[in-house]
Amino acid sequence: MNDLHTRLSRFGGPITAASDETITADVARGHRAVRRRRTVQVAAGSAFTVAALAAAATFGGGGVPSPSTPSAATSAAVLRLVDYHGEQPRYFTIDKVPEGYFVQNDDRGGLTIAPDSVKVRPSGIDPSKHPMYDPEMLSGKIGIYLEQKEYRGELAGDTVTVDGKPAVLHRIGATTQLIIAVSPLVYATIQVDVPLTRDQILELGAGLHVHQDAIDRMGRVRGK
Fold first, then answer.
1. How far is CA 46 from CA 43, 175, 194, 202, in A?
2. What confidence score (pLDDT) does residue 223 get?
3. Is the distance from CB of 97 to CB of 113 less than 8 angstroms?
């Protein structure tokens, strides 16, 4: 084994550990690829897909749900927001969650908030065939993640203010994204694919507090 490392070093030079910035950039690129896939999956069945993805107006006008309209196209009753009493995520503090929901995933890529019914995966269930058990999938859930403004570019939607910060409510089919400018370089996006009203989504956003170290880390990321 030592001889193998010697020969590899001779061919490619010494092996050095990747910096934290390099790892962060790689992770961010991976999560951006995942989010592109999620966005396509969310919008695939919608007649609004082309218009929603092609629209470009910086924090400009656009249709969003009315205060009494759920964000997800479902006949289910609108959920009730309650105070969050679980363990707080590493990079965020959250004040509210829908009743009966839990933090299914918490990592550098962000949060996934899912129904309690998928908290325990039964033996033999394959998450690739039952995506509600897959914490990387956001259909039927709430996703929260950070991204650079330059990646997002211009946005279409309804201009709002959330906890004193400029934001936009952006619609993709039956799903609503609340995109909050948490710094000059970074957005915090709340992607809602559960039955919440417009006012509830804004309340959810007002209760989201992004830790400064997470904002700074995302602001340093380079590369798409």
1. 5, 10, 16, 23
2. 54
3. yes
